[in-house]
Amino acid sequence: MTWLEPPLPASHAEQEPFWRPIGRLVFAFGHLEEQIDWCISRMLDAQSTRAAPSVASQIRNICSRIALIEALFRELTSDAKQRTEMHSLIQALRRVITFRNGVLHGPWGTSIDDKRTWHKPRTHPADLSPGSFEVTVAAIDEHIQRAAEIGNALVGLVRVAAEERSARVSPPP
Predict the structure, then answer these.
(1) More confident residue, 54 or 139
(2) First to last CA, the chain
(3) Minimal CB count within 10 Å: which of 15, 43, 65, 125?
(4) Domains of the chain by start residue, with CATH
(5) Are 120 and 107 in contact (CB under 8 A)?
(6) Rounded distance between C-alpha atoms, residue 38 and residue 152, angstroms
(7) d(CA 29, CA 45)
(8) Its pTM surpasses 0.85
(9) With contact defined as beta carbons under 8 Å apart, do 44 and 52 qualify?
């Protein structure tokens, strides 16, 4: 193959070990996005005992929704420990989102290591230099698990902070 010829797609046999893990990744991050939307809704309605239907999903960019969570959480609580925990969760969330974006977007290079590892080419945004990263089924599974842990921790932290805020601002019966 020369640069004048388009690259050939990988064979189905090479791709197949990744089909189900990538499907699980898509579903896991779909659930994570639902949790993010719930957190935003809950923080916008912190004095209510119910979470209003979310308008957060109208913000199409997941990074913008993540920034909104952090900003709303700063408004919701002044508890330094909770803020530190939220900041750590946001950083971890950004890392798993970066991995997800790398897996789901852009070209798949070639399979290596007996078809259990893929070499994914990418361009570094800072200087447009060529680069790559390797994707394994194990790495996909690890990020699925991590996304679930982060989503559950976000929901728990927001729930506690919102309930504490509601208790402080609710008038006595």
Answers:
(1) 139
(2) 77
(3) 125
(4) 15-45+55-106+136-166 (1.20.120)
(5) yes
(6) 11
(7) 24
(8) no
(9) yes
* Amino acid symbol at 17: P
Q: What is the mean pLDDT of the chain?
A: 85
Query: Which tokens go with 93?
Result: 């969330």
Which structure tokens are listed for 150? 């982060």
Cα(3)–Cα(20) distance, integer angstroms:
32
Q: What is the CA radius of gyration of the chain?
A: 20
pLDDT digits (tens, 9 = 90+) for 12-67: 677 788 889 999 999 999 999 999 989 998 888 755 545 555 566 678 888 999 99
Q: How far, in Å, CA of 115 to CA of 132, rounded?
A: 17
Tell me 58's DSSP state: G
Residue 143's pLDDT band, with cuts at 50, 70 and 90, is very high
The type of residue at 35 is Q
